[in-house]
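Example 9 (inverse folding). The structure is encoded as follows.
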């Protein structure tokens, strides 16, 4: 294939093996490959690359040498730099200023002509060769600003022919083309499975599909941002930095449009650590933009085409997300765990399936030169392929509930599919089998979002099962998500047992199962909490103990039990904070079980507050508690009578999965919780 690849795309490919292990990781890949492509021949690579290194030593400035180079420029009046340069408009001076961090200078004179020629200088900057001159006569606001950009040559391809690219794609099989893409991304296709290849390609969807919103959460060192940092200079990666409405959208003071309006993709790396200076305002604007592709601050409204990408870390066990996550958006900051925002995500890429990047996983073969491929992806955003393709399939909800797909579901899947088609089949020639493969991946990316929304807000987001049908062949496609095997370690007793009882609580916004064990020992009526039981729950235990002591006869207990026995109370699942008053009725039922030796039903869970007078009071978090019970396989939930109104508003699909018993007295609690 290499021979054909070289012939068909002559002058546009590079041996990726030569671009790795060069000792120049401080440069983006497109910078390094630009230099190699322009100054190195493969047959004399070693000698030519030595000259490139020499040029870099002469023209690239390391941070420690900044002052030395400033002095050199002052003495020699001119110098060529290889560096990244950003430009900003200072409206009070009606002037552009360039910032070049390589020389620690934020006030470098630059002409309007250069800025107009390269507008991306205003949005995150560009790498290139900068000719700097020193002129001490340059004075602005009574300050000498001697540094001036005389010339600027960016590291990028200026002209490409997208039609030529599409025609040449036809000369390769699908398998060949996928491997070409993987090599172009800097990875070794021989070390990846078919699915891993397709997931890797999926990372590029936001680069070819306008307004595509994607998230990838997974383990560290899997290359989540490599593509965005090294292949495309039309993206901007925010790595744990400060994100403000002004920098992302519009600066109200200057009117300058921010990154989302000027870049094709804005990537929030280490999303959990990103510093949002005004979280509410930022998320509000982002939410609107992700829906309508426009944003406004003040009177100015901007239509933009930039994609939003979020990447972050997530703990994994056995190649699936760790069971400690109730839903798979938990690694996000709390203020971003907003259902309305998450519902606007088109694709959740399962980062836990991606392999860690090792030397063996880096490309050993030919791929597209990064700056060429960057421009190709830029042009592919304008290529429309979906009109004939979307007539070949239909989408539907195949779940037992039959709730149906929303407009957002349809839109997300179409955008996912459109991006994959643009990358793999830019010529639009795709068989039914190939369409089915991509459609499955497109559906999966949205299904994962919907599954987690159901866990976060089950009353609002019903469970659905997104399926597709290839119309010509009647083939039904229903992806099975690998994380569906993930189970939380709640193991119910196989039969009713004395003193073992299940309570329900909430941790944050999610319901959790609390397993308690009560055991009698010789003593004098003490209730002994064991483990990390916190203050409020200890108060629930004390209230339960006081009630039992004053209602011994009514509960069927020996009137001298407190003279002969202590009760030890152990809360298992110690990783969950035991805080809150809703364990009162659970404590009473468990202690009565231990004292009377009546077993507790093994498929019943309880929640409710108890007073020392025996009143059963309503508690909060009913919906997440019920969902936690359903997930754990609980058959019956006992709730305070005062919580009836909370249950009335639950969807039928939730109420149909579990029996709910309301209790206004301890007697009714015990009747339904214990085996008589």
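The amino acid assigned to each position is listed next.
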């Amino acid at each position: 294939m290499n021979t054909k690849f070289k012939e068909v795309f002559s002058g546009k490919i590079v041996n990726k093996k030569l671009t790795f292990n060069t000792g120049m990781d401080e440069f983006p890949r497109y910078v390094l490959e630009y230099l190699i492509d322009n100054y190195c021949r493969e047959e004399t690579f070693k000698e030519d690359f030595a000259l490139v290194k020499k040029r870099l030593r002469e023209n690239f400035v390391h941070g420690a040498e900044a002052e030395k180079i400033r002095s050199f420029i002052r003495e020699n009046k001119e110098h060529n730099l290889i560096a990244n340069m950003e430009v900003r408009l200072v409206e009070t001076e009606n002037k552009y200023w360039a910032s070049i961090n390589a020389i620690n200078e934020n006030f470098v004179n630059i002409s309007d002509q250069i800025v107009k020629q390269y507008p991306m200088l205003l949005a995150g900057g560009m790498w290139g060769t900068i000719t700097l001159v020193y002129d001490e006569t340059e004075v602005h606001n009574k300050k000498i600003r001697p540094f001036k950009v005389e010339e600027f040559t960016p590291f990028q391809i200026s002209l490409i022919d997208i039609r030529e690219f599409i025609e040449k794609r036809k000369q390769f099989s699908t398998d060949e083309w996928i491997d070409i893409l993987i090599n172009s991304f800097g990875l070794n296709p021989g070390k990846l499975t078919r699915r891993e290849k397709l997931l890797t390609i999926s990372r590029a969807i936001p680069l070819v599909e306008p307004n595509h919103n994607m998230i990838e959460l997974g383990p560290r060192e899997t290359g989540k941002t490599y593509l965005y940092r090294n292949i495309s200079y039309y993206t901007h990666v925010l790595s744990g930095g400060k994100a403000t409405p002004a920098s992302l959208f519009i600066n109200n003071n200057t009117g300058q449009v921010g990154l989302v309006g000027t870049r094709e993709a804005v990537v929030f790396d280490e999303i959990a650590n990103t510093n949002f200076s005004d979280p509410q305002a930022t998320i509000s604007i982002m939410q609107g933009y992700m829906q309508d592709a426009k944003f406004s601050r003040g009177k100015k409204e901007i239509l933009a085409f930039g994609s939003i990408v979020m990447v972050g870390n997530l703990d994994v066990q056995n190649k699936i997300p760790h069971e400690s996550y109730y839903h798979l958006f938990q690694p996000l900051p709390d203020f971003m765990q907003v259902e309305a925002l998450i519902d606007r995500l088109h694709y959740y890429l399962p980062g836990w399936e991606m392999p860690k990047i090792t030397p063996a996983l880096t490309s050993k073969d030919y791929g597209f030169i990064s700056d060429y491929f960057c421009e190709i992806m830029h042009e592919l955003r304008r290529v429309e392929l979906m009109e004939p393709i979307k007539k070949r399939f239909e989408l539907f909800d195949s779940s037992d509930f039959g709730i149906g797909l929303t407009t957002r579901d349809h839109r997300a899947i179409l955008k996912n599919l459109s991006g994959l088609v643009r990358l793999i089949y830019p010529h639009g020639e795709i068989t039914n089998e190939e369409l089915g493969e991509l459609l499955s991946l497109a559906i999966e990316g949205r299904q994962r979002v919907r599954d987690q929304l159901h866990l976060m807000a089950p009353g609002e987001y019903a469970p659905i099962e997104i399926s597709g049908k290839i119309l010509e062949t009647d083939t039904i496609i229903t992806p099975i998500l690998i994380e569906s095997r993930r189970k939380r370690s709640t193991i119910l007793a196989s039969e009713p047992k004395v003193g073992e009882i299940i309570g329900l609580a909430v941790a944050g916004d999610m319901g959790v199962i609390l397993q308690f064990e009560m055991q009698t020992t010789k003593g004098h009526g003490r209730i002994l909490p064991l483990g990390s039981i916190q203050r409020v729950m200890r108060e629930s235990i004390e209230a339960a103990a006081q009630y039992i002591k004053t209602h011994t006869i009514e509960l069927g207990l020996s009137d001298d039990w407190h003279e002969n026995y202590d009760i030890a109370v152990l809360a298992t699942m110690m990783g969950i904070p035991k805080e809150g008053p809703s364990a009162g009725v659970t404590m009473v039922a468990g202690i009565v079980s231990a004292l009377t030796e009546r077993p507790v039903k093994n498929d019943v869970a309880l929640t409710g507050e108890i007073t020392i007078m025996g009143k059963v009071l309503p508690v909060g978090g009913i919906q997440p508690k019920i969902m936690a019970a359903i997930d754990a396989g609980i058959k019956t939930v006992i709730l305070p009578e005062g919580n009836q109104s909370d249950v009335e508003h639950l969807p039928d699909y939730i109420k149909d999965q579990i029996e709910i018993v309301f209790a206004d007295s301890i007697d009714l609690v015990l009747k339904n919780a214990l085996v008589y």
